[in-house]
Write a structure and sequence with these properties.
The chain is α/β, with parallel strands linked by helices. It has helices spanning 3-6, 9-20, 64-77, 88-93, 138-146, 178-185, 199-211, 216-221, 235-251, and strands spanning 25-34, 44-47, 53-56, 81-87, 101-102, 105-110, 117-125, 130-134, 153-155, 167-171, 192-195. The strands form 2 sheets. It has a 7-stranded mixed beta sheet. A 4-stranded parallel beta sheet has the order 9-8-10-11, with helices on both faces. The radius of gyration is 23 Å and the shape is elongated. The protein starts with a helix and ends in an 8-residue tail after the last helix.
């Protein structure tokens, strides 16, 4: 539960309905105002994936465009945004142009007669990342058991992912249909694809993928062997190393392999 939900039952209920449907959304909270403004600090709103206010209030239309743009960026990047909507003369006085981002704050022009300044914090809420585990090997079974504990959505087939949902694929077939599984994993854009097996084994499979017409850049982007080099031996340890690597990719903003 987010801070915004702690202060509003209506917001919490509306947010839970969106979570239950795995739909992306965002919270907007006014954190500071200066001058004459309709809404005051603490005002909150729940926004849909297209930036529409579904619940709550942020004042008049003066902030609507800036909030919508910041919401779309927050959902696209998966990172909170801080937007400051200020009158143009104040922006000019500070040497700032509408659209600038300075020290993590986006600036936008307030064209309303009130001529106040409103700072709004946008917090994105995205669907749980999807981990597609291809195969029925011991490593695949361990991954499927571990991942939900770390708030990953697990699938055994390459089902359609939700909007704004990251999709990571692990080919853990381990000799049972390796080539077909890799072809499926590389058939469409994924955020990351990993192969459980040695570099030598994947190199042999890579040549067959090239012969099958798979783009070489996609083939080279596959993480093989999968996982961090933890010295893992057992299926559970290997699964842990793979999940740890995926968490690292998500949390320290490493570029997705197939972006």
């Amino acid at each position: 539960m987010t801070q915004a939900e702690l202060f509003s039952t209506d917001l919490a209920m509306a947010a839970q309905q969106l979570r239950d449907k795995d739909e992306p959304f965002a919270f907007a909270t006014i954190v500071r105002t200066a001058g004459s403004t309709a809404a005051k600090p603490g005002a909150k709103a729940l926004l849909s994936a297209d930036g529409t206010i579904l619940q709550g209030w942020l004042g008049g239309g003066c902030t609507r465009g800036a909030v919508k743009r910041a919401t779309l960026q927050a959902l696209r990047d998966g990172k909170p945004q801080l937007v400051s909507v200020a009158p143009e003369d104040l922006l000019v006085e500070k040497g700032i142009t509408a659209g600038d981002t300075i020290d993590g704050t986006q600036f936008a022009r307030n064209g309303c007669p009130s001529r106040g300044t409103v700072d709004i914090f946008i917090e994105p809420c995205l669907p749980a990342p999807q981990l597609v585990v291809l195969g029925a090997s011991p490593v695949a079974q361990a991954l499927s058991a571990f991942a939900p504990q770390f708030h990953w959505s697990v699938a055994a087939t390459l089902a359609q992912k939700k909007p704004h949902q990251q999709q990571f694929v692990v080919v853990a077939t381990q000799g049972q249909g390796d080539l077909d599984a890799l072809k499926s994993a590389l058939s469409e854009k994924k955020d990351h694809v990993a192969f459980v097996g040695s570099r030598r084994k994947y190199a042999a499979l890579a040549e067959k993928l090239v012969a099958a017409g798979i783009d070489r850049s996609l083939i080279e982007s596959v993480q093989a062997p999968a996982g961090l080099n933890l010295g893992a031996v057992t299926p559970e340890e290997i699964a842990l190393s793979i999940l740890a690597q995926f968490v690292q990719i998500r949390r320290i903003a490493v570029k997705p392999s197939h972006a």
